[in-house]
Structure formats: C-alpha cells, structure tokens
Predict the 3D structure of the following.
Amino acid sequence: MTEVPISEFSRIVSIARLGGEEETHEITATAEECLALSRRFDLQDLSGLTARVGLKRIKHGAQIRLVTGFDVDVVQNCVVSLEPVPAHITEDFIILFEPADSEAEQAPEESDGGEILIEDVENDAEPLFGEEIDIGECVAQYLSLSLPPYPRAPGIGGDLAHLEPLGDSDVTGDVTGDITGDITGDITEKNPFAVLKALKKGS
C-alpha cells in the first residue's frame, strides 16, 4: 500500500459542518516547517509565513470556496551571482472545490445584491475527496507560484530572457501532501503554472 506523503505545512480542516457562513482560520508556520519549506522550494531561507484562510459553501452547498492571503519572507539565490536575494511576498488567492462524485449542475449563485458571482460562472473547481481540506498545503503550493522566477542581487543587470523559467522540480521540489484529507493528489500533480492559471481564473 502506497503511503500518502505528509505536507511540510499541513493544516487539515474538516468541512463536514461547513455552511454558508465563512469559517476563518489563521495559521502560522513553525520554525521547523519554515525550514522544511525552504528545502522544498530550494531557498536559502524562509520565515514568518502566516495566512488567514476563509472557507464557506457556495452554489447552494455544491462547492467549497477557499479565500486566503499570506505573508512570508524568503531569501533566494541570485540567478547570476548566487548571492542571497531577500524578498517579502504578500499574495491573495481563491480556490474552488467540488466533491469528485458531483455531476449535478447547479444554478449560478447570486450575491446579496442579486448579481451573479464571477467564480460561479466559470466552474474551475478542483475535485474534493472526503470531508477535509489541507489549507496549509494550499498556501504552500501558491507560495511556490509566487516566488520571483529570476531573483537578482542589487547591481546585477543584463537580459535574462535566455534563461529558462524554473520548472516543477526547481520550484516545488518533490510535491508532498494532499490538498484534501483523503488520497487525491489531483491538485499537487498539476504543473504549478497550470494551477496558477486556474487560481487566477477563480479570483
């Protein structure tokens, strides 16, 4: 039997009783988790990772919407000189989840003002297995997408267009952990830039 790898920043939340009112979670990575994430993303250092995550059911309960913002300090290697390049990253993102066995089409949900919500028009929901979501792993994956692709130390110029963007293994290392509580991996196995496209469409 294959073991499911554990995320370096795992914060599993049950959605069994989640309703239409937003449920908020504030999460902070420990020093050990920051170190593990820095190794995963091939960084010189990572610290101060905090996130505020909101979860609620939308589309008459058919989907789960995750809305979050995170802050983190990272130190990368300069792509030219390998000198340390510090950066502070602040990002927000939205992910929609839908039960993997859900086939029923739901009518778009309306806001309090009667307007149809954008995220309900374009259904790019990720499959949800079970009754749990690993919100920490969600943050970790989007953090990897938010890292500057060509970090440069002060004074380093030149055209870097010839450089190849960081690939999956360079950015995320060995993908670990599942977004959902049960075995899935559907989100983690995607190319990070494909995931980013989907997340941006959800926002």
User: Anything to note?
Assistant: Residues 104-108, 118-122, 166-178, 181-193 have pLDDT under 50 and may be disordered. The helical segments are 31-40, 118-121, 135-146, 168-172, 192-202. The CA atoms of residues 23 and 189 lie 27 Å apart. The first strand starts at residue 12 and ends at 14.
